Amino acid sequence: MINHLEKLFVTNDAATIVGELEVQHPAAKLLVMASNMQEVEVGDGTNLVVVFAGELLSMAEELLKSGLHVSEIIGGYKAAEAKALELIDTLVCFSAPPGTLHSVPQLAAAINSVIASKQWGNEDLFAERIAEACVLAMPSDPLKFNTDNIRVAKILGSSVGATTVVRGMVMPRGALGTIKEVQGARVAVYSIPLDSATTETKGTVLLKSAADLKNYNDSEEIALEKIIKAIAAAGVNMVVCGQAVGELALHFCEKHKIMVMKCPSKFELRRICRTTGANALVRMEPPMPEDIGSCARVHVKEIGSTMCTILEQEDDGSKVATIVVRGSSPNIMDDVERAIDDGINVIKAMTRDARFLPGAGGAELRLADALQQYAEAQPGLDQYAINKYGLALEVVARTLAENAGLDAANIVAALYAAHKSGKPNAGINVVDGKVDDETGVLDLLWTKKEAIRQATEAAVTVLRVDQIIMAKPAGAKKE
How many alpha carbons fall within 13 Å on the CB side of residue 294? Predict the structure, then answer.
């Protein structure tokens, strides 16, 4: 896909696709908004929202042609949604044990299926790396887990197999000056330029001789060195600056053995503060002891011809971890980053509810079967809408089968048969092209619940609209 900025995307991530598409139709925009809400709430399951909502609208069209009123379809869909959310809790096949969120192997096993849907073939590698990073950044109370504490640094070169995890932060830029390594760093962070102080108003200096000029320059140097000497005296041996660093200031920092790094991004500056425990200062002055951050080791390392500054933490003081992604092209690394983002968000959702459903289309088909049976027992015209809601859930298994090049009708029939014969965890094995009793694929219950809510809400909102009137854009015809 190529967006309006001519940027190329090679991905199967639904959130990225719908986010970059220029959607004009209001009904389609509602589905895109529902998908975006799913991305914000859970971070995964965006594809399910778009596909399921689209199928619900397709089924609603059939019902309207059959003579049902919109209010009856909406009533049936809402009743079916409530029943689906009630039934889905009974389909749970695995609950993560209490210590899972602090165990790398258990966490990696839980998110393996999520990564496989984005990075087929590399799921074991990335699931382990994501789990390792999340365990490093996991607080003692998992409910306080912050996804922003897992950073991703993309460095071109090598292959995705070289992806590693660092406790602390990796900044893809080198240090200024000649000091490239500091052990036991004491860090001061300044969000202002590290340079000679300038007055806020314009001033005029009258110089009568060369001696006056020399004294004026010397006084400026003396004032700057006095400040930097005081910073060094406070125990600081590393300075991170958010703006420009003057050459004279850099010279005095070198003289007093202070490592200097420039970080133009205010967001990265905040993350450095969080990693080291420093407070960003807004005046050129020596920091107070409580404003100084600490880091076990700061060093500059060349990774794939990119100079990187690595802030390493050896103790449990830091709750920030960085996944250093390697790859042969920016597109590959972007797609890996999306998979990592999904994995981290699923772990975040696990802190709220760590129950899983059988994946590979199995859970949706069991819901579809249960809802169709439920519909038969309902009086009134709602039953037709409930039945269609159940049929719409078949779209997951059908899409999986079609994408794997299988006969969708046969696969869906075989999956129904497997569930009826007492194999509740049966799903589609896309590798062997058949229905397996135990695929080992797991889907997070929270993700499914949110996707059902968002898709139903989007479909019902579109159905509530009587008619859509679109105005053509003014101007000449676009080529």
Answer: 9
Q: 179-315: CATH homologous superfamily?
A: GroEL (3.50.7.10)
pLDDT averages per 10-residue partition of the chain, 479 residues: 76 72 77 80 79 84 80 83 83 73 76 75 79 79 75 77 76 76 80 66 71 68 77 80 77 79 80 78 79 79 76 66 80 80 81 78 80 79 81 81 78 79 75 72 81 85 74 62
**Using CA atoms, how far apart are residues 382 and 69, in angstroms rounded to an integer?**
10
φ, ψ at 102 (rounded to 5°): -115, 15
Q: Where are the domains of the chain?
A: 14-94+357-464, 179-315
The predicted model scores a pTM of 0.70
Q: How far apart are CA 439 and CA 424, in angstroms?
A: 11
> DSSP alpha helices (H): ranges in 42-103?
46-66, 70-87
Q: What does residue 192 show for φ and ψ, rounded to 5 degrees?
A: -120, 165
Cβ-proximal residues to 209 (8 Å cutoff; 6+ apart), any chain: none
456: left (phi over 0), alpha (psi -120 to 50) or beta: alpha
Structure tokens at 310: 């690595």
| H-run or E-run covering 304 | none
CA angle 314, 317, 321 (to 5 degrees): 70
Would you say domain 14-94+357-464 falls under CATH 1.10.560.10? Answer: yes
Radius of gyration over alpha carbons of the chain, in Å? 29
Question: In the numeric block, which tokens belong to residue 143?
Answer: 């409910």
Please say whether the beta carbons of 371 and 390 come within 8 A.
yes
Per-residue model confidence as pLDDT tens digits over 199-226: 556 667 777 777 767 666 666 677 777 7
Q: Tell me if 14-94+357-464 shares its fold with 179-315.
A: no
